[in-house]
Design a protein that fits this description.
The complex is a heterodimer of chains A (325) and B (386).
Chain A (H helix, E strand, L loop, with lengths): L1 H7 L2 H26 L7 H18 L3 H25 L4 H28 L18 E2 L8 H7 L2 E2 H19 L1 H11 L1 H6 L4 H27 L11 H11 L4 H23 L4 H4 L2 H24 L2 H10 L1
Antiparallel strand pairs in A: 1-2
Chain B lengths: L2 H30 L4 H17 L4 E4 L2 E4 L1 H26 L7 H18 L6 H28 L3 H24 L20 E3 L5 E2 L1 H18 L1 H11 L1 H6 L4 H27 L11 H11 L7 H22 L5 H14 L5 H31 L1
Antiparallel strand pairs in B: 1-2, 3-4
Helix pairs in contact in B: 1-2, 1-13, 2-12, 3-7, 3-8, 3-10, 3-11, 3-12, 4-5, 4-6, 4-10, 4-11, 5-6, 5-10, 7-8, 8-10, 11-12, 11-13
The chains are: A mainly alpha (325), B mainly alpha (386).
Chain lengths: 325, 386
């Protein structure tokens, strides 16, 4: 046991937690922003698949990771806007739009991958892993001074540019939600669209902005998956991260900081699973760990929330509130 | 709006949605078609489309298209699992429960049924029935988890059921790989089902159509009766329409929500079992089969109406077969079906799609009504004057 703990608490382990958490954090931010605007985007998974494909394809054809990243972001935003069009304009249930996007994201991306590689490479490929070289992935950043710190350096230095961006954008999103008028409008639309509309806020516009932002975040997540986490796109590579993000959003009670912490929890669960399979646990038993942790996490969150509410409405606390008056 | 107009609108709307999906498909096929120049590509597209649209039923050759019974029974055979998942999703969605566990459910049902078919000897007639029922019950028990978590703690049944799909898949893979695999075979598969457990062939045309097809149709009727002729079905539909009102009028909302998902799970489970015993000799699924997602599309196409499920299932099975043929003969990747499915899905579920047309129909109906009333009034007035 002690040996195992020693094996566990290495800089590499913490490094991998942060690395694994980054795409989940991006998707979680995408889930948070639409939750604040009053709906739920379950299409994150599918958007991430499309963005991952677009990112790796464009970076290969343009031989530039930056253009690839931009393509992934554009793809994510466009998919978000498309979802918005169906949900807000054609009044499709947003959950069903999400399911449709996920359906297309799973097989449709493979179709596009095969068709595009067939046109340009002469043979249909089922993944782009053969095309992408390490120059075409998003660069890792070593931090000059931090790198030298014994334990911490190994954890913090050498991360992908996008990992840093994930945590930075997490902070920025929080600021946007609570310190800008746009954030205020988004929250107002989520809490009471009629009230927001009565003071002249265009509810439709705000909802479009929210879902486009959500798509943009999923675009970041997708780019991370195919251009940093793995080299190139392959089928079903997002593997439920878009759904885990929905759970992370709920567990973080819809706040950016909470979402970040729950993403780290899921990152920890997955890193643990990888570690377990490295010391000999069957990979089919290690792989479901993050999914099981998601359900357990949701249950713990729900129970604690209920207890808090019970406490709030208990006779003792009501008395206290009465005494204050 | 008159009933006739309403049906007309539904038909036109469905037709246009399918047309749009096929247009998107044509465009994609055109892009992926092999050939130099526009006309060669166009010809290749036409050939591919021909395979997709009439290939599932007709063998095309120089002498024109010839109907083939085998292809029709093939489509019927592939309808069996998706009818069950379609019914399962219909019932769960009717209660407004977005439980997406039919995918994991059908795999678990298939697995449990297979295990009983392999390891528990029984009399010939009894064996498949017991195996399939236990498979169904196993999935019903699995669905208790998201259902109870939803009603007791308010945990999203959607996220929970999606996570369960992954967990079920990995655990089945683990059990199969480590304990249950027939190690003498090259690929990972279980031992063969006992001969007593097989579900026999209804029609045998090489690739047989099992009695499972008839069972599926019976299940459609039973589900229809359940949803439209019993108070439980009524409660499920009412809760889906207005949960607060149902609670106010004294329905046990939590109980019905759990029941809808348990029944849905049971259906997905027996679907998996029947598919296994009717079609395969061993259990060898190593990933989720995708029938659960197709089931969702079918439920949307059928508008959550159980009786329309076989029609929607036929349509999806037909398209899917067409895409397979196209992949074989025209080298268009068969995953095109996912894009077509997604597009049809989006437009079918869109409430405001073609709303202008509906508006026009409503206005026309109202005007006719007014004109008729005026005519009647005039006639009555005339009678009074005379």
């Amino acid at each position: 046991m002690l040996n195992f703990l020693k094996l566990l608490f290495t800089p590499e382990f913490f490094f991998s937690i942060i690395r694994i958490s980054a795409p989940i954090l991006f998707a979680t931010l995408g889930a948070i922003i639409v939750e604040k605007a009053g709906f739920c985007n379950i299409g994150l998974e599918g958007i991430m698949m499309f963005a991952a494909l677009a990112g790796s394809m464009v970076s290969y054809y343009a031989s530039s990771w930056l253009l690839g990243l931009l393509a992934a972001l554009a793809m994510g935003t466009l998919m978000g806007l498309m979802m918005g069009f169906f949900a807000f304009q054609l009044k499709t249930d947003i959950t069903l739009v999400g399911i449709a996007v996920n359906m297309m994201g799973s097989g449709g991306t493979l179709f596009l991958c095969k068709v595009i590689t067939n046109l340009t490479e002469g043979k249909a490929m089922a993944s782009t892993t053969g095309l992408i070289t390490s120059q075409l992935t998003i660069p890792n950043i070593t931090i000059p001074l931090v790198e030298k710190i014994p334990f911490l350096g190994g954890i913090l230095s050498g991360h992908s540019l996008l990992t840093w961006l994930a945590f930075l954008i997490c902070g920025l999103t929080s600021v946007m939600l609570y310190k800008t008028s746009l954030g205020l409008n988004i929250r107002a639309v989520g809490e009471n669209p009629n009230a927001a509309s009565s003071v002249g806020v265009s509810v439709l516009k705000i909802k479009y902005i929210a879902i486009a932002y959500s798509g943009l975040m999923a675009g970041f997540g997708g780019a991370f998956m195919s251009m940093s986490y793995a080299q190139g796109w392959s089928q079903d590579m997002v593997a439920g991260r878009g759904f885990i993000a929905l759970a992370a959003q709920a567990m973080g009670s819809g706040e950016c900081l909470g979402g970040m912490l729950s993403s780290l929890v899921f990152g920890f669960a997955q890193a643990l699973g990888i570690k377990f399979s490295a010391i000999g646990l069957d990979s089919n038993l290690a792989s479901p760990i993050p999914y099981a942790v998601t359900i357990i996490g949701l249950v713990i969150f729900a129970v604690s929330k209920r207890n808090r509410e019970k406490k709030l409405h208990s006779p003792a606390s009501l008395e206290k509130a009465g005494a204050k008056k | 709006m008159t009933k006739k107009r309403q049906i007309l609108f539904t038909l036109v709307r469905g037709f246009v949605a399918i047309l749009i999906a096929l247009l998107v498909a044509t465009l994609l096929i055109f892009i992926s078609a092999k050939g130099e120049g526009f006309s060669a590509k166009l010809a290749a597209t036409g050939k591919a489309l021909q395979q997709m649209l009439i290939g599932p039923l007709f063998r095309t050759g120089r002498s024109g298209a010839a109907f083939e019974l085998k292809r029709l029974t093939d489509i019927f055979a592939s309808m069996i699992p998706i009818i069950f998942t379609g019914l399962s999703v219909c019932i769960m969605f009717s209660a407004n429960q977005f439980n997406l566990g039919a995918e994991g459910g059908i795999m678990l049902g298939a697995f449990v049924t297979s295990m009983i078919a392999i390891y528990v000897p029984m009399a010939a007639g009894l064996h498949p029935i017991v195996a399939v029922l236990i498979g169904g019950l196993a999935v019903a028990a699995m669905m208790l988890l998201p259902a109870l978590l939803k009603t007791r703690l308010g945990v999203s049944e959607m996220v929970c059921s999606l996570m369960l799909n992954y967990i079920v898949m990995y655990l089945i893979k683990f059990l199969l790989n480590t304990y249950l695999a027939d190690k003498t075979k090259g690929q990972i598969q279980s031992y063969e089902f006992l001969p007593t457990s097989k579900i026999g062939a209804m029609i045998d045309t090489g690739w047989k159509l099992s009695w499972g097809f008839l069972i599926a149709l019976v299940a459609v009727v039973l589900c229809g009766l359940y949803m439209y002729r019993t108070r439980w079905g009524y409660a499920i539909r009412m809760i889906g329409i207005n949960q607060a009102f149902s609670k106010y009028s004294g329905m046990k909302v939590a109980y019905v929500i759990v029941m809808s998902q348990v029944v849905g799970g049971f259906l997905a489970g027996i679907g998996g079992g029947i598919e296994m015993l009717g079609r395969y000799q061993t259990f060898s699924w190593s990933s989720l089969p995708g029938y659960g997602w197709t089931g969702i599309t079918i439920a949307i196409l059928a508008g959550n109406n159980c009786y329309a499920v076989p029609l929607a299932a036929f349509f999806m099975a037909y398209l899917s077969k067409g895409c397979d043929l196209m992949a074989t003969y025209a080298k268009v990747p068969s995953q095109l079906i996912d894009i077509i499915q997604g597009v049809i899905f989006l437009f079918f579920a869109a409430e405001q799609f073609l709303s202008h047309y509906r508006q026009k129909l409503v206005v026309k109906s109202a005007q006719e009504e007014l004109a008729r009333k005026k005519l009647e009034e005039a006639r009555e007035g005339g009678a009074a004057n005379a």
